[in-house]
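Hi support team,

I submitted a single chain yesterday and got back a structure, but I'm not sure I'm reading the token output correctly. Could someone confirm the output below corresponds to the sequence I sent? I've pasted both exactly as they appear in my results page.

Thanks,
R.
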Amino acid sequence: MTKWLVAALAAGCLASAAGHAEDFHGFDPATFDGAPLPPASLKAMVVDALKVAPPRNGKTYVIGFANLQRGITFCALVEEGIKAEAKAAGVDLVVADNNLDGATALTNAESFINRNVDYVIEFQTDANFGATIMQKMKDADIKVVAIDIPMPGATFFGVNNPRAGFMGGSYLAQAAIAKFGADKVKAGYFIEGELPQSGPIPAMRTGGQVAGFIASVPGFEPSHVLKFDSKNTLEESFTQTNSLIGKIPPGVPVMGTAINDQATTGILRAVKQAGRENDVVVVGLGADEKDTLAGEPAFAASVGSFPERYGNWLLPIALETLAGKPVPDSVLINHVMVTKQTMCQYYPDHPCAAGTALSYSFPQAAFEKHLASLQQDPSLADVRNLIPTK
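Hi R., thanks for writing in. Yes, this is the structure output for that exact sequence:
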């Protein structure tokens, strides 16, 4: 990890006030920089945890990890990181695939309970199944950390949804203006790939994308915002965009973003297939589709989430919980814009493109107003403790 990335992640890993964090063998979720902890530190965490919560099998800790879908690049990177941390800590890891399906996630949760695991890391998309899964975990006295999609009673870890979304939407607007000019952008169309099945917290991400775009294009026509359910996949995003593109006159700018890089790529591919490549610019979220970002001229940037580093937080969170230490309600990743010209700063195996990146300006005042509006949103009444403060 580059020094710059360490500093960026350390600056933005936020813990809610609902739980006071403390240093646990070099891990404080409020200030942790995301770099892998030494194996000795992880093993010391295990020793402390064993004093409080002996392993249920009488031998070693077993942690269950239910992945969102193992075939998605972002999820594969998350899994690789968790596996590496579990190996370094000397704990066993049982992996299941939720396959983007709530019923499957419930079956996997029941399997973890039957296997008598000591802790569960959940990455599951269907908010309708969250309460049922968590009730079963509570009945079995198994603690849970939920990745990116919250579950009632679980520690939340992942994307700072309002900020990441607002960054992506505002960057998209500024990149579009640089490419097409302000007047053409005002007459253009904004395509948004949502994920309604995951509930109100991830909706803050896509809502932030729309709000960030609108804040950067005063006078943009609201009826030109076209939303669809991406179902978190490239394929569905492609299909839905393909049905929308006919509504947009030829030569009119098409600006697109979505819940993740894959769905954003689906938007781009559909517009290109329609012969409209010169009309489109997109911005992703995740920065995990690095080859797409590097190779597609119309893929202007992506909001970096660094999924390959998720495990560096998640395993210590699990061990800290087992050790009886206080853990915050939520731990959020800091985000940076990753562009063709800057990606080598974060991923040294990918060269930076020549030239200068867009001179991007984050609309801080507009974002603060957006955050204030979230506090008043009745749909977020039950999860206000998970709304970031900055």
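A quick pointer for reading it: Residues 1-20 have pLDDT under 50 and may be disordered. Let us know if anything else looks off.

Best,
Support desk
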